[in-house]
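Why do we care about 3D structure at all? Because function follows from shape, and shape follows, mostly, from sequence. That is the central idea of this module. The next example makes it concrete: a single protein chain, its amino acid sequence, and then its structure expressed as tokens.
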Amino acid sequence: ILPQMDFHLDLFIRPLNNNKILITDDKMTIATLSKGLKKLKKYKKEHPLDANPLISFVINNLNLEIQKFKHEVQLNTLPQTNKIIEKFDIGIIALSFIKDGEIYNSHLIGTEEYYKDFYQMLRNKDNLTTACANEHSFIEAFEPYLNKGEDTLYIWFSSGLSVTYSCAVNAINMLNEKYSERKILSVDSLLASFGQGLFVYNACLLAEEGKTIEQVKLSLENSKQNLNSLFTVKTLSYLCRGGRVSKMSYAIGTVVDIKPLMYVNEKGKLLAYQKVIGRKRSIFSIAEKVAKTITD
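And the structure:
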């Protein structure tokens, strides 16, 4: 029990306190820690003569660590993301999805329930289709800044995952002609989701330090191959619906509980690098990968 508990505390709590990595499955981690605490208490009760000081130390401190962990998890929720967006005045070009002919934006600042509703639609197997942002969306997002005499740096969602990239290029070319006195720069993050968010946040910190827009762009271009996203999934159904997993692989994988370990490669494309059996094993495998490959 103890090495596994220490593994969790080291890998999940300490790096999170230092803003190094994101909790990949906070509920499972909390459940594992709580289960370990319960087993330790049971062991001590059944072996009152065992004088190992480490057992008493862990029992006395683990509950406190669990509470601290829950607090840290709360700091990584959507409201915190909104605070960052507001603090740095980050403009967002939302992608959209369509349900029953109605168009929904994928991002609404200040809204948390909206995200829950979206994922509930997926769980309900509602017929949803997605759409990329068009040129008008980019122009509409950029122009308020350009009209105020500000330069802009756009950080793309990976060009290897979406045609949004080509729409952005077309929009920027049009804006460059209209606002020739302004700098409209862009960076292909080759990332998505939290990885792209971290990339944007790093750019904001550089700007806050006083770096010029050119310096920020150069720093991002030089560092993007050192930032990667590793993840797994609870179900193969969404990969199957998106065409990334065949129906045959979906059926077999669901029966034997195969979990693919995914990453975004150097070209910004989504690939599987390993397959394991079971949800818990998939989480531990990603944690082990991070521990072996993280450099800073």
